[in-house]
Amino acid sequence: MRWFHDVVVTLFALLLVGSAAQAQAATLDPAGAGTHLKITLVAESDRPMAGTSVTLALASVPAPGWHGYWQNPGDAGFPAKLDWTLPKGASATEPAYPVPGTLIVADLMNYVFERPYAPLVTLKIPAGLAVGTPLPVRLKTNYLVCSAEVCVPESADLSIDLVVGDGTITPQARARFDAWRRAVPKPLDARATYQTGNGRIRIAVPYPAGAALTKAYFYPITTGMIDYAAAQTVTQDGDRILIETNAATTPAAAGTALQGVLQIGARQGLVVTAAAGTVAASHTAPASGQSLGGASVATATLLAFAGAVLGGLILNIMPCVFPILSLKALSLARGHLDERAARHEALAYAAGVIAVCVALGGVILALRAGGTAVGWAFQLQDPQAIVVLLLLTVALALNLSGLFEIPTPAFVNRSGGAGGAFATGALAAFIATPCTGPFMGAALGAALVLPWAAALAVFAGLGIGLALPFLALGFIPALRRRLPKPGLWMETFRRILAIPMWLTAIALAWVLGHEAGVNGMAIGLVVAFGMAVLLWIAGARQARGLAIGVVLSALLLATVVAGAWLIAGQHPDAIGAPALAPGGAEPFSEARLAALQKEGRPVFVYFTADWCLTCKVNEKIAIETDATRKAFADHKVAVLIGDWTNGDPMMGRFIEAHNRAGVPLYLYYAPGVAEPRVLPQVLTSAMLVGL
Question: Where do the CATH 2.60.40.1250 domains begin and end in the chain?
């Protein structure tokens, strides 16, 4: 029987300690005091907040030629046993292991780590502890470490002393833990299926057709289901991956769920849970650990590109973008440009928009490649970026109000206006980043799993959509002829366009208050007032026929730099979910979500941010209405709010697991259903009541 075989193999490995290990002791460890797997207990923050969680890493380094074991060791060996001694009220989760490797010895499959690795454990800190309370953490661990010739059971007594504090995480610790988290497989946001028969097992795993797949292999966590040493055939078949191999000789009970890790790349994987069912065979050629075909990538890229173009087109009606687009349209309405110049200006505007979108996309992809969980509008999670945007928006509002005129640099005149159009397009794209509208979420989410070249094409599609209206005006004379004739009304309309810019500035000041506290918001407003005074002086000089001047320009630049510098040391007045949660809503946490699902309650989860205009509109017109609250209360729907204003990395990884690049994200978990229904990014109260 299989269990008897495993026991015999493991006992045989342990007995080697009394013979081969002793015979080679002088060679393996002359001093007799060393270990072959060095483990260090590391905390992401040594001052965790009471009532929160802190991640601990078991940083493990095997000696050259030795290996440690995964949570399922395979045909031989055993995983590490952890015996925690924790502060009263604290608890530790089971370790989350990175993706292992395979090692076959004498026809026995081993799932091992031959390079440094770090299982991660979440330590939950009790609520109500005073700042400064010591949190001693002790761990006794027993584990097996092997070389090609011998296996040695070892043990380690580990400890770390934490103190209740403010939860500060140093940049070095964050980078280190983000790299470790990147190696831990992510939960798959879809249910897989497996079928057994004739000594074989076939597993179907939902997976986007265009997503990259290399080094594909399925590591079973559930025992008694798969013959570990048997060869696996991995096939990409449309929007699923099929794994076929030999079933275990003595299979588990019928209907047992199969859990495992599907490796999708170097040190990348997905945690898969498969239910028993029917799995159709595939006639597609096996993936053999190589990248998916170019046709499937092209199809996924085209779909995501189309969604990004539509999403970018819709961004033009946002209050911070519409005034800029209108000003450019008015410049064409003046009729001073010939056909060639109008086309050149439209192309320059589009180039500015696309360049910023692609640059932001490149930064996002680079940060994510380094293990940082960021998404669209990630820069708005930094109060310094908010201050710069606030000052820029105030300056634009004052310009539209007629206080001063933006001077035209010499290079713009030399380029026939193309330089100014490029800068205007770049500005429109930059201040449009707080918005995520229809079609954008799915498109940008898909970009994050596509190859980098295809992903950048999707971000370029967003820029093309944002630039389309002005491109149409530049290239279609009939559209320009439909614009109103120039006249005094244009000055009045310009003043009207200042209103949405002022509203945008007010919204940015409100976001700044949430990210940097009341003091931070006061600093931003004072700096904005100082800049307004300087621009008033600049306007007065322009009225007398004088240029703004080098001194005044330097003072304006210094004001922006001073604002960003002063805001750097400010902190929010409160950290966490919004204080005024609607209708008994609770802050989101994966633990709370799991508890509510275990109770059998329906759960509505929404992720929002103070800088997300679409989020706030949805909350006012759909989520926080009396009809929605009553429907949720009548059906005992639990509501969880994920506030991503400050870019919480754990929340970012949860959002990423649902194929989204940012907020808003709306999920509905029906009772008894593990996987959520992903709702559209534009909600109505009737849609939520209908759930």
Answer: 2-166
Instruction: Supply the pLDDT for residue 285.
Output: 45
What's the burial of 291, exposed, middle or buried (CB within 10 Å: 0-12/13-18/19+)?
middle
As its CATH architecture, domain 2-166 has Sandwich (2.60)
pTM: 0.47
Helix (H) or strand (E) holding 3: helix 2-15
Per-residue model confidence (pLDDT) at position 657: 67
Phi, psi of 107 (to 5 degrees): 65, 15
Percentages (nearest 5) of helix, strand, coil residues in the chain: 45, 20, 35
CA distance 645 to 517: 13
Cβ partners under 8 Å of residue 404, min gap 6: 398, 535, 536, 538, 539, 542
Question: What are the backbone dihedrals phi and psi of residue 137, each rounded to the nearest 5 degrees, phi first?
Answer: -120, 125
Residue 382, phi then psi, degrees to nearest 5: -110, 120
144 strand-pairing partners: 153
Q: What is the dihedral of CA 311, 317, 323, 326, to 10 degrees?
A: 90
Taking residue 621's Cβ as centre, other Cβ atoms within 10 Å add up to 14
Whose structure tokens read 């193999």?
9
Name the architecture of domain 582-689. Answer: 3-Layer(aba) Sandwich (3.40)
d(CA 113, CA 39): 13
Measure the CA–CA gap between 464 and 314, rounded to whole angstroms: 12
Element (H, E) at 153: strand 151-163
Would you list the DSSP string of 291-346? PPPHHHHHHHHHHHHHHHHHHHHHHTTSTTTHHHHHHHHHHHHT--S-HHHHHHHH
The tokens describing 392, both together, are 């820029």
Q: Kindly list the averaged pLDDT for each block of 10 residues, start to end, along the chain of length 691.
A: 45 40 36 70 93 94 92 88 94 94 85 94 92 94 87 91 92 90 85 86 84 86 90 83 87 79 88 85 50 53 80 74 68 65 85 87 69 56 81 86 73 54 79 59 60 80 86 83 73 82 84 82 92 92 87 90 83 48 74 86 89 78 88 90 78 73 84 81 84 79
End-to-end CA, the chain: 50
- Measure the CA angle with vertex 369, ends 363 and 370; round to 5°: 95
Vertex 119 angle, CA 287 and 263, to 5°:
5
Of the candidates 412, 417, 433, the residue with the CA atom closest to the CA atom of residue 353? 433
* pLDDT number for residue 546: 87
What is the C-alpha to C-alpha distance for residues 580 and 47, in angstroms, rounded to an integer? 28
* Closest C-alpha among 604, 611, 592 to residue 650: 592
For residue 209, give the DSSP letter.
Answer: T
**Cα angle 342, 353, 469; round to 5:** 50
Calpha distance 459→466 (Å, rounded): 11
Task: Please state the φ and ψ torsions of residue 658, each to the nearest 5 degrees.
Answer: -105, 25
Contacts for 178 with CB less than 8 Å, ≥ 6 apart: 370, 371, 372, 373, 649
User: In the chain, which segments carry CATH 3.40.30.10?
Assistant: 582-689
DSSP, collapsed to helix, strand or coil, labels residue 123 as strand
Instruction: Identify the burial level of 348 via C-beta atoms within 10 angstroms of its C-beta, where 0-12 means exposed, 13-18 middle and 19 or more buried.
Output: buried
Q: Tokens 């995964």 map to which residue?
A: 70
Residue 369 DSSP SS3: helix
DSSP string of 421-447, one letter each residue: HHHHHHHHHHHTTT---TTHHHHHHHH
- Could you tell me the two tokens for 299? 């199809």
Nearest CA to 291 out of 379, 345, 215 is that of 215
Element (H, E) at 361: helix 339-369
**Quick one: pLDDT at residue 327?**
65
Helices 452-475, 294-315: inter-axial angle, 10-degree rounding? 40
Q: Hey, what are 482's tokens?
A: 């439909």
Second CATH level (architecture) for the domain 192-292 = Sandwich (2.60)
Is residue 657 within 8 A of residue 186, CB to CB? The reply is: yes
